[in-house]
Amino acid sequence: MLSPDAFREKYPPEELEAKLSDSPIGSLRDLQYLYGKLYTLATTGGGEYAPYLTPDAAGDLVDTDNSLIVVRVDVSGDEPRLADDELGPVQVTRYTEDLVQNVGHCKFSAAAGIDHSVTHQAGRNSNPEKLARYAKERLTRWATDEVVTEAADEHQDGWIIEELATLGQNETALETIEETLTRKLGGESATSLLTVRVKAEPDGEYQWPGDMDVFREAMRQRKLSKLVTKNKADDSSGDATDLVTGSPARTVGTSEDPQNYFLGKQLEKFPGLDIEEAWRSHPISEDAAITVMNADTFVEACTYRTFGAKVYYLPYVFGRLAPEKVHRLYELLYRTVEDEETTPIEDAYEEERRKTIEEQDFRFYISAVMPHQMSRYDVFGETLNGRLHYPKQLAIRHNEFVQTVSAFNRDHFKEWTAPLPTNQNWGLLETNDEQLHAISTGWYFRQTFAERDDDEADADDPRIEALVSVLSGEAIAVDVLLEEYVTRIIDDQTDDSEHEGFPSFLVASQFAQLCALADEDLRLLQTTDPSKDQITEQPTYDTKSMPSLDEIPIADGGHPAAPKLESFINKTPALSPDHDDDPDSVTSQRRGAFLLGALVGDIGSYQEYSEDRSTTLVDQYPVKSITRSRIKKVTQETVAKTLTYTRQEKKQQGNYPGTKADHIVDRLRDTILNPDPEEWEIETDDLRFYYALGVTYGMNDHPWNREETDADDVTSEEEH
Predict the structure, then answer these.
(1) The predicted structure's pLDDT at residue 517
(2) 712 against 667, higher pLDDT
């Protein structure tokens, strides 16, 4: 394949423009056609037969020993015969770069079939006996194939193929081929291409099949024949307007494409399909169909697997196919083919950083497919309007969020911990150079969503839906996030073999993700439930250092963490009374769940570190136990336990100021103890997630000097 510089040199703007469509990309087929055209130009060049060749199919054989076996046939006399010169009837040599065009190879993927061209690719490490059979089949099988003989009948040089078939009936000649080949291989197996060279004129040279029009035309007709007979069709073809070029042409109905979207088994693409009439449902000309098939190398380079699915992220020029933009597209595709370590999203980002592409000039086709069979995919999340902006900005926004906002940044609270914990071993809680990689591969959601077996994944997997949504700029349903978050929290809290204690780092990671998705420029969250509108809104946490706690006026008897709690609640839209101060609203109920969690976390933490208790309130009231019917009882018991510890500390310390954790208890009385939670409207996942967030807050709510000690004890939950 030509390097980007060589491609530019071979196809300057004027020449490249002449080979491109006048229409912008408007469909997946247009995109595949452009990829196929670029691949053909970069490998086999222009010309009538170039799209039919598959030069990369045997690319791994180039410059390897015994990689090309040539049967040499002289048809210049009265009878066809094997060559008897110094090279002999069979030549065993090396397949080199300068022979790629000469052999004119056209691969056929069927396991039991022969390649479309007279040149055939053998299986890996074939033994001499098998290679001898393939060599003889150049005469006995390919030259007698029905489509090949029909093509020969129509071609002025068809007699050459007929002569090969005639020689294939000569048992002595066939034995000579086998004996010579076996001897030259020395009994060793080989991975090879097998072809013929033919001498057609008495004084002429032996010619390669790639240099003879009759062989190329027979190859072309054989490949075309497969486009109308898949899935047991007799002849799915007819005259129609080509959907790619817009020109009248003979169109085919069962052609392949790199994504297998339009095969006969894809009933969702062909409702009520009559396989013989498929060319009417999806008319694509023969040449366009072949070009589309050649898109495979670039399409596969822009594909990666995650969650048991294949994700396609295919860049294309947005608007007119200006040559300079197409040159840049080719460079991006070329580098993506070369770089197998990163996703195409990261490759595109790197090219943007190098200023070789401009983001506004490109769009991305995005889809995910769940393969069930080789030729049957379930397609979902499909769009032509994907933009690099969304995954790129989400990665940037997430990093900025956990680094700068007061909810996570320790610098805002010099004597006290931040509202939520951070941990350098958790990718969503620290600035992370791999954040774009995490987003593009789906790891971003694997860290926070319910765990699943990828081998049993299906098209309804919410991780895949969330990934495709982010890549395409579509909003994710808040209900989906909350359900996934809560399921994961409960699983982690329940699974004693994998986790110790409450999964606070997980909850903090989920909340950071939720806030990043709510970024006002990205708007990647949505809900149809007005009571959850506040969750989709971006928090307004401070991003600059706040005054230290000793600089904030505190009323006598007040808790030093009260301003922090007040600030966190007020600047979190899902909790803030500024967004909804109705005591009966879901926002108030959510705030009550959060405050209960904060008290449970605070007292549970006290029990662990001051009372040395192995089982705390956090264990006593796990997330899965929290429901509307139980939350009032849990609150009463937690407040009672708080008062017990308050009396205990008053006895120990004498004049103890107020109630322990009174900055939480006072607000709880207003949100849970006075109203009746059984009449609440908040949904269970909503209730449980914000309770879990409160527990995380409460467990992290203590003087900074203790945090330094804790960090040494809790480095994981444990390493993530």
Answers:
(1) 97
(2) 667
Q: What is the pLDDT of residue 712?
A: 38
Could you check whether the bond before residue 484 is cis, i.e. omega within 30 degrees of 0?
no
For tokens 């941990």, name the residue: 423
Nearest to 303 by CA among 25, 35, 27: 35
Quote the CA–CA distance of 349 and 354 in Å, as a whole number: 9
Taking the C-alpha atoms of residue 314 and residue 335, their distance in angstroms, rounded to an integer, is: 13
Other Cβ atoms closer than 10 A to 267 = 10
Amino acid at 464: I
pLDDT tens track for 40-51? 999 888 788 888
Separation CA 154–CA 143 (nearest Å): 14
Specify the DSSP class assigned to residue 658: S
Task: Check residues 700 and 705 and name the one with the higher pLDDT.
Answer: 700
How far is residue 289's CA from residue 29's CA, in Å, rounded to a whole number?
9
Q: What pTM was computed for the model?
A: 0.82
Determine contact, residues 264/254, Cβ cutoff 8 Å. yes
- Closest among 485, 448, 460, 463 to 685, alpha carbons compared: 485
Tokens 């956090």, residue located = 618
Please check the confidence at residue 474 and state whether its pLDDT lies above 70. yes
Cα 424 from Cα 508, distance rounded (Å): 13
R_g over Cα of the chain = 35
Q: Give the confidence band of 476 by pLDDT, cuts at 50, 70, 90.
A: very high
* Residue 709 pLDDT exceeds 50: no
Strand 193-199 relative to strand 90-93: parallel, antiparallel, unpaired? unpaired
Q: Give the rounded distance of the alpha carbon of 607 from its chain centre.
A: 46
Percent of the chain with pLDDT over 70: 88
Given CA atoms 388, 290, 229, 192 in this order, what sign does their dihedral have? negative
Q: Which helix (H) or strand (E) holds 384?
A: strand 376-386
Structure tokens belonging to residue 235: 């002849």
Query: Are 527 and 533 spatial neighbours (Cβ–Cβ below 8 Å)?
Result: yes
pLDDT (tens digit per residue) in 144-187: 999 999 999 999 999 999 999 999 999 999 999 999 999 999 98
* pLDDT of res. 719: 44
**CA–CA distances in Å: residue 339 to residues 275, 332, 654, 712:** 39, 10, 69, 39
DSSP string, 179-242: HHHHHHHTT--B--EEEEEEE-STT---B-GGG-HHHHHHHHHHHHHTTS-GGG-S--EEEEE-
Give the span between the Cα atoms of 207 and 198, in whole angstroms: 5
* Amino acid, single-letter form, for residue 434: E
- pLDDT of 495 > 80? The answer is no
Residue 127: Cβ within 10 Å count: 16
Average pLDDT value for residue range 5-28: 91
| pLDDT at residue 682 is higher than 90 | yes
What pLDDT is recorded for position 121?
95
Q: How far apart are CA 1 and CA 53, in angstroms?
A: 13
542, 407 in Cβ contact below 8 A? no
- By residue count, the chain amounts to 720
Three-state DSSP class for residue 82: strand
Amino acid at 254: T
How far is it, in rounded angstroms, from Cα 333 to Cα 255?
A: 24
Q: 622 by DSSP, 3-state: which? A: coil
pLDDT tens per residue across span 626-658: 999 999 999 999 999 988 888 887 777 766 566
Q: Note whether 597 and 698 are within 8 A (CB).
A: yes
CA dist 491 and 212 (Å) reads 67
User: Residue 124 — φ and ψ, nearest 5°?
Assistant: -65, 135
Q: How far apart are CA 345 and CA 392, in angstroms?
A: 9
Mean pLDDT of the chain: 86
Q: Cα–Cα distance between 54 and 107 in angstroms, integer?
A: 6
* DSSP state letter for 178: H
